[in-house]
Amino acid sequence: MTPTKTTKTEVEMVIRNRKTVMKEGIMTMSGIGEPSVFHALVVIFLEFFAWGLLTMPIISVLNATFPDHTFLMNGLIMGIKGILSFLSAPLIGALSDVWGRKFFLLVTVFFTCVPIPLMTINTWWFFAMISISGVFAVTFSIVFAYVADVTTEAERSRAYGLVSATFAASMVISPALGAYLMDLYGEALVVAAATAVAVLDVFFIMVAVPESLPEKVRPSGWGPAISWEQADPFAALRKVGAERTVLMLCVAVFLSYLPEAGQYSCIFVYLKLVMGFGVVQVAIFIAIVGVLSIAVQVVLGFLMRSLGAKHTIMLGLLFEMLQLMWYGFGSRTWMMWAAGVLAALGSLTYPAISAYVSVNSRADRQGVVQGMVTGVRGLCNGLGPAMFGVIFYLFHVDLNEEHAVTGIDGKPQEKYVRLVPGPPFVLGALLVICALLVAAFLPEDGTVGSGRRAPADLKFEVERGRRVAGTLSPLMAPESAAL
């Protein structure tokens, strides 16, 4: 068969499969309108808005539940959640490639938000369920897959930016609102409001979100069996060492995102319990950093055009290193505000890395390399919080500044706290310096993989659809493009 005939036959098969799927009623759950980026934005906004409302109450409950080991338990809880997310993400992603996005959006949002009402019922069960819910805490991955289904390659970068900006916007508004409601009406009302927002999100998915993946679902039953290779969270990581540039990129991501993940898990607790921030101050801090982060995302395109992807990555890493140093050595309130500004500027690192991969990868290897980077980040989401919690515990930085200063014998502990209030942040800064050195050796304008980027022609789109619906994981390359 000639290549033209083969392509035509494959296109006809895809169209025929779509008609069969629609007739059999597979993945035809109702929705409002055609699937669009808007549906994904609403889902992600409502989920993180619900959790953002609980930012201040969680700090108080965490300190009351684990008064002697606040940072250690916070690190372990978030660490377990992150590791479970890393282990489950490939399987859930592979299943969503076969069964559709809507069902797994519903599952991930529902189980991620299940712990919320437990906060006023039983705090021990609340934190236990937060850890266990990590199995389903992969809504971002499903949302990105949903966006990829409904956008073209040219539209995708802008759509991903909208998703990130929507997440940032939800975290700008909700912590301040939660703190305000908690101050006026108490913790119970905030938990009730967060629960209501979570229920609204689940209802929106059930009623309004249309399925984005009918064309790629196989018509027979629920699709092919999911192999262990697809469900293996380390499958992408094992491929990292096969290529020098990919290895360097992933090492830089690991070294930079490990402290970033740890910082995200504890910074608000740290500001309140160690630096003496009030509830309102923490809420304002979150809002300002969030607004600045959105502004940074807006100018990312300009920086990429002016400096190039590699130097934009290095600039972001430099800002990240500086803000970790400020957090680690800073002992005054104004120093924390300065570090927050640097943190917002450093938020351009990961989008710049994604852009570097996108610009320098062939069209048929985008998913492979992006999947590796995502896998490394998932691993950091588990290890980072645990690392920060253990280091805080080992250096006796716990509870609040007054406890740390007086201590048991007084002076030695007071001297230490004044020198290095945040030891994990200092260690994180050293790791980012290593990441900066690795990033300096990335190719200026090379390709991540062999060959320049090729256009996504019809045959590639059909092959991509086959990989998504077939037995191969979307993170795995076809044989012709294997690493």
Q: Which class of secondary structure composition applies to the elements? A: mainly alpha
Proportion in β-strands? under 5%
Largest sheet: none
- Termini separation comes to 29 Å
Arithmetic mean pLDDT = 74
> What's the number of extended β-strand segments?
0
Query: Which spans of ≥5 residues are poorly predicted at pLDDT below 50?
Result: 1-8, 14-29, 216-223, 399-417, 446-483
- For the CA atoms, what is the radius of gyration? 23 Å
The DSSP helix count reads 22
As a percent range, the share of helical residues equals over 70%
Series of secondary-structure elements, N-terminal to C-terminal: HHHHHHHHHHHHHHHHHHHHHH
The shape, in one word, is: globular
Oligomer: single chain
Structure description:
The protein has helices at about 5-25, 35-55, 55-65, 70-100, 100-115, 125-130, 140-150, 155-185, 185-205, 230, 235-240, 245-275, 280-300, 300-305, 310-330, 335-345, 350-360, 365-395, 400-405, 410-420, 425-440, 460-470. By secondary structure, it is mostly helical. α13 runs parallel beside α16.
